[in-house]
Structures are given as C-alpha cells and as structure tokens.
Write a structure and sequence with these properties.
Number of strands: 13
Distance between the termini: 71 Å
Shape: globular
C-alpha cells in the first residue's frame, strides 16, 4: 500500500434541526465543516436560516412545523435523512470542538465502539461558561438503531449499547452558545416544566420528595458539580436548578388535585 492509500474510515454525518436559527448558525456550520455531511432539517424558518445553510453546502430537508413547539420530531427527521450510518446531532446554538471531532472519528473506527455516545456539553450562565457543566447529551448515534420520540427533553431510543465520553478529556465537548437572560430563563423554566408534567403525571411526590428533591438538586449543582467555583453566578444557577424541581412538582400535584376535584373535566 502506497503512502497515498489509506484504510477507509467510517463516515459521520452531522444532523442539525433549525427554526429561525440564523443567530449562531454560521459559527455552528463552520465548526462542523470537516465532517462528511451536514444535514439541516428546517422547520419552515421565516428568517435567512435556509439561505445560510445552502451557502455552506448543507443538505437541506424540510419538516413542516405545523403546531409543533418542540424540536424532537425534526431531530428524528434530520437523523433519518443522513446518508451515513453514524450521525452526530448538533443544535443550532452548539459548537463542535476540533478535539471532539477527532475523538469521534477515532472512536467510531474502533471495533468496540458503542451504538451511541453521550457527549459532554459546556453551558453558559450570565456571560461565562460555568463549572457545573458539562451536562451530558446523547448525540452520537447509529441511524438505523435510533428513534427520537416526539417528547420534549426525551433522549433518543437506541436499540443497542450506549457509552459515554469521559468528562476529563480537555475540550472533547460541545460548546453551548445559548446565554439566555434571566427573564428568558424563567420563561423557559415555565415552558419546559409545563411539557414535562405529562411525563411525570404518574409520579408520586410525597412530603419527603417535596422537601428533599429541591435541596438535593441545589447541593448537586453547587457542591458536587462545582458551582461554588463560579461565585454568585454558581449560586444563582444552583437556585435555578432547585426552583425547576419545585415548579415541576407543584404542577404535577396541582394537576392531580384538579383531577381528583373535577374527575370528569378531562373527558
């Protein structure tokens, strides 16, 4: 074999779902340009999202937005529209580091590579990346073994082995560009907990859960995930993690009380 001949390596497609995503899209597409294919599944954007994607040579498919207010159906469409078996799912406000790209190509070439990988993602809060990240997102998948349910914040269903990228690998991660203001974070908290009530409706939250669950999420964020290293920002972020749980449990309890008080209201 000559120096110019190389062993065929597995190919990886990038799948991005979009809706009016022009704010960060150019930077995102620049960060994934070295992958074998970029699929943009657009939910009928009204800004220049599609034009940006087209100018970068992306494969563009359209998912009718209709009444959808969540991205999961478009994610599934993007994955299934990819030409390659391996698909990295990236949001339109996430950057893929060079270190992550190189790691993924090395990993999928190994015979013991799982069928899907959780990828660490670093997040921002009040203008800076925080120590209480990364969180983990199930983003590298085999197309033929994956289905993404149309439920907010639900990870994909993978018919196979799932692995995880170690958190201690420097810059082997997604970089989340979203840095919502506090008002937007409160609006998101309210919207996301509304969606999540349906998933938790059969969950029983007793006195102990209502008392301890918010406290645990605060301690986990501030102490175990290193939020204390971010000073006031870390303290406030930990409170937000706790408040999310309070809001969710309160909505579930409220829903159950209404069902018990007005049992025929949902018929």
């Amino acid at each position: 074999m000559t120096q110019d001949q190389t062993i065929d390596k597995p190919k990886i497609s990038v799948a991005i779902n979009t809706y009016n995503a022009s704010l960060h899209l150019r930077r995102v597409l620049e960060s994934v340009k070295m992958f074998d294919e970029i699929v943009v599944c657009d939910m009928e954007s009204t800004d220049d999202t599609v034009e940006i994607a087209r100018s970068k040579g992306c494969k563009i498919v359209t998912f009718p937005k209709g009444n959808y207010s969540i991205c999961e159906p478009a994610r599934n469409c993007a994955i299934q529209s990819a030409s390659n078996s391996w698909v990295l799912v990236v949001d339109a406000d996430e950057l893929v580091t060079d270190e992550l790209r190189q790691y993924l190509y090395r990993r999928v070439a190994q015979p013991d590579c799982p069928d899907a990988l959780y990828v660490p993602r670093r997040n921002m809060f009040l203008g800076k990346y925080i120590h209480s990240s990364p969180d983990y997102q199930l983003r590298l998948v085999r197309k033929e073994k994956t289905d993404w349910p149309a439920v907010i914040h639900r990870p994909p269903v993978v018919d196979g082995v799932i692995g995880r990228i170690p958190a201690n690998l420097h810059r082997v991660c997604l970089m989340h560009l979203d840095d919502a203001c506090i008002t937007d974070r409160i609006n998101k908290l309210n919207r996301y907990t509304d969606y999540e009530v349906g998933k938790r409706i059969n969950k029983k939250y007793g006195y102990l859960s209502i008392l301890c669950r918010p406290i645990w999420f605060f301690i986990r964020s501030f102490i175990f995930q290193g939020g204390f290293r971010d000073g006031k920002r870390g303290l406030l972020k930990s409170y937000f993690d706790s408040i999310y749980q309070v809001s969710l449990m309160a909505k579930v309890v409220e829903h159950k009380i209404k069902d018990e008080t007005y049992p025929d209201s949902n018929k």
